[in-house]
Design brief:
Blueprint: E1 2-11, H1 15-26, E2 32-35, H2 42-51, E3 56-61, H3 80-88, H4 94-107, E4 114-117, H5 125-137, E5 142-143, H6 157-166, H7 170-176, E6 185-187, H8 197-205, E7 210-216, H9 223-227, H10 234-244, H11 246-255, E8 258-259
Helix pairs in contact: 1-10, 4-5, 8-11
Length: 265
Amino acid sequence: MRRLIVNADDFGFTRDVNAGIVEAHTRGILTATTLMANGDAFDDAVALARAVPSLDVGVHLVMVQGMSVLDPSRELPATVGDLVKTLWRGELAVYEEARAQVSKIVAAGIRPSHIDTHKHTHLLPPVLKAVARVAREFEIPWVRRPFDYGIDGSVKWQKRAVALGMRVMAPGFARELAGLRMTDYFAGFQVTGTLDAGSLARTLRRLPEGLTEFMCHPGILGPELRVAKTRLKESRAVELAALVAPETRELVRELGLELGNYRSF
């Protein structure tokens, strides 16, 4: 049996991203999302989560970009490279920041079922340790396995190379996350920023037996997203269109995929 969780990152980033995620869930195949505790539209996301309880909400832990939740006067590192330098110098209290972010989400009335990280920073051992610790502390059962299943020959070679390189971290994940749950497979990294109806269909057709998380970034290209600091702008609207397309829903039925979320699985 092929089971599928379609998860949107960046819930709470902007209100138009939030609206796109909810639309992808209510009209399309999206089943789950992860919430940014330091997002500018955090309160809006929480209100939407309450209004649409069928949307499974987890934690999108942020260690790069935006403001710290632990210390709101402090900016987080701007890039993953900057984060590596900050960790090397011991200038970021990773567990404390992670705990502050999860605590904020829980205090808002959300009981997260899963956790992942912005820019996949839990590939870095100090962040992975913090993720594992807060997941156990807050009884969050699922943690993202960020290693793409298969190599998509239609994407740029740089993305394929990074996807292959990330797999080196897989054994460390299994050890650090012992006792926590991960999906059998993961997909979506290689098509981030280029996902459309065609690449979504190709991904769905090649899903393996077992449980797969498919990561996506839908949104509505509204005024807040247009000025936000992200390279994913027009692409979010394209992803949204693909996720709600009637032919996508029909393909899911045709392939016999079992759609669900972290709570149901």
